[in-house]
Every structure is written in C-alpha cells, then in structure tokens.
Amino acid sequence: MPAVPMQDILSDAFEKRYGVGAFNIVNDLTMDAVLGAAAETGSPVIVQVSLKTVKQMGARLIALMFAEMARRIPVPAALHLDHCPDRKVIEDCVEAGWSSVLFDASTLSFEENLVQTKEVVALAHRYGVAVEGELEAIKGVEDGVGSEHGGAVVALDKAVQFIRETGIDCFAPAIGTAHGVYKGEPKINFERVSEIVAAEPIPLVIHGGTGLSDEVFHELIRRGAVKTNISTQLKITLADSFRTYLNGRPAEYDPLKLLNAVKKDVQAMAAGFMRVFGSEGRAA
Ligand code: 13P
Questions:
Q1: Measured distance CA(232)–CA(243) in Å, rounded
Q2: Which of 53, 206, 229, when mutated, tests ligand 1's pocket best, judged by the most ligand atoms within 8 Å of its CB?
Q3: Does the active-site annotation cover 8?
Q4: 251 CA distance to ligand 1 centroid (A)?
Q5: CATH architecture of 6-277
Q6: Nearest residue by C-alpha to atom 5 in ligand 1
Q7: Which pLDDT value is given to residue 109?
Q8: Low-confidence ranges of the chain (pLDDT < 50)
Q9: How many Cα atoms occupy the beta-carbon half-sphere of 83 within 13 Å?
Q10: Residue 156 Cα, ligand 1 centroid: separation in angstroms?
C-alpha cells in the first residue's frame, strides 16, 4: 500500500499500546527484508535511515525505493530519518516525500533547540511530514552521530514545555537506554516514561533497542514508549549472515543466492522483534 503517515502508525500503537519497530536499514536488501518481515507478521513498520546512509544514497533515491517497495506490501509502512542535526538534509527528506524526521538538536541549549525544532515542525507539517523531537542526547554513537556520554536529563516541566511548544509528533527522552551493544545491564528509568506520558500524552521513542530484554520492551511499551528503534542488531545480523554464508561456501559465486540468504536472515531478525513488540497482526 502507499506509504502511511507516521503519525497514523504511532497514534494507533499508542492508543492500543503495542510497539512499532523502527529498523535502521542500510541499503535495498535491508529495506526489502524489514518490509518483508512486516508483511510476514502483518505488522505496521517504520523503515528508518541514519544520516550516514542518506549521505551515501541520497534522500530522493531512498524515497523512491521505499515508495515502490511499500506499495508492494499489504501493511502500513513509513519512512523516517534518524538522528539528524543537519537542517539541509531534513529539508531534502521533507521535500523528497519522507514520512518523518528526527531533528536532533540535543547538543544545542534548551532555548535554541526549542526555537529550531519549532521551525523544523513548521516546515515538516506543511508537507504532512511528522517530527520526532529530542532534548537530551541519547548515550552512544549512532552511525557517526552522538557521543559516548549521554546529555543531562532535563526536568519534567521543561520536557513537557518542549513537547507542547514545538508541536512535535513523538518524543525521544533519555531513559537509560544507549545506542550500540550494552556493556552491562542498562538501568532503565521506566517512571520517566510514565511521568511524561501522564503530563502530555504523546508517543515516546525507545532508542538503543538492541540488547534490551523482552520484559523491558513490554514494560516501556505498556507505559507509552511505542516507537522501538533497532539498528545495531540489524548490522550484526547482516554481517554475520554474509560471513556464515560465504565461509560455508568458499567455491560458490551466485550473488542472488547469497543476497537472498542474507535477506532471509535479516527478515527473520526483524520479524522476531515485531512479535516481541506486539505489532503482529495489527496492520489495519
Ligand atoms: P541500537 O543501535 O542500540 O539498536 O539503537 C538504535 C537507535 O536507537 C537508532 O536511533
């Protein structure tokens, strides 16, 4: 079906409290695999792209590829730009017909972030594009964006002011999760999710999904963090799949067999997460 606005996907998930996987794809194969997993499980899905990949492939090519691949499957799908501090790339994606963007101004002061996020929302909403807002830097580097140290956590009233005044469609708070592979057990601030949602009912976003337990996902989703981001696990599955396939077949040179085998593994990984998130069978 044609791409569905991300607001529609997230508002249904928020109302019914199930998670929607947002997977950072890196090329056509991984986009196809993630959409294939959504079709296989009857899940709504968010195809998410890092700034680095957008710079490599171009916003328009990704948008065209997504439009055609999404049209071929019978479930709702949206195309989202992940952490992007670069206003020019945001504009390119908005104009190229993406569904949503994450304007990452978390390195700016609260006041400057507020002003700039408002401007991004005004532009994006003119095109029917959703905006994810971020106030506190999420710990860990995501495809070249971010730092090993998370930003300071702002007071609840400031976070609520940011959500209300900017008009963002979903919000990514710092809740103790981190991008990349966890070195120890993450200490998750579940209460913060509940406090924000109680003060302002808006879908929240779980960054750093790789390595969280099913129980942590279920609890965060139940409290309103329904956009669930997965990047690192896709990279691991992709690389391991290539390695295993090629190591096991040192004399085979059939690219389509190789790519189809890898796609199958990535699709199985994404489908597994969709089942954990509870999005299976939710596609309207
Ligand atoms: P992981 O890399 O930990 O899966 O996090 C993904 C993410 O939050 C993308 O923004």
A1: 17
A2: 229
A3: no
A4: 36
A5: Alpha-Beta Barrel (3.20)
A6: 208
A7: 93
A8: none
A9: 24
A10: 24
**Euclidean distance between CA atoms 19 and 44, whole angstroms:** 9
- Looking only at Cα atoms, what is the longest distance across the chain? 62
How many whole angstroms from 180 Cα to the centroid of ligand 1?
6
The dihedral sign for the CA sequence 236, 51, 35, 60: negative
**pLDDT value, residue 248:** 98
* Burial per residue of 119-158, b for 16 or more beta-carbon CB atoms within 10 angstroms, e otherwise: ebbebbbeeebbbbbbbbbbbbebbebbeeebbebbeeee
CA distances from 136 to 152, 155, 158, 229, 272 (A): 6, 11, 11, 16, 30
3-state secondary structure of 128: coil
Contact between 130 and 202 under an 8 Å Cβ cutoff? The reply is no
State the DSSP code for 72.
T
Q: Is the separation of the CB atoms in 242 and 33 below 8 Å?
A: no
pLDDT of residue 151: 65
pLDDT at 203: 98
Q: Which two tokens stand for residue 67?
A: 């439009």
Token pair of 126 as six digits: 């003119």
239 by Cβ neighbours in 10 Å (0-12 / 13-18 / 19+) ranks as exposed
Q: Whose CA is closest to 171, among 197, 133, 209?
A: 133
pLDDT number for residue 139: 77
Active-site option among 12, 28, 32, 82: 82
CA 47 / ligand 1 centre spacing (Å)? 13
Q: CB under 6 Å to ligand 1: residues?
A: 24, 82-83, 142, 179-180, 207-210, 229-233
Q: Which two tokens stand for residue 184?
A: 């120890």
Domain ranges of the chain: 6-277
Q: For ligand 1, atom 1, name the residue with the nearest CA.
A: 208
Task: Please identify, by atom number, the ligand 1 atom nearest to the C-alpha of residue 179.
Answer: 3
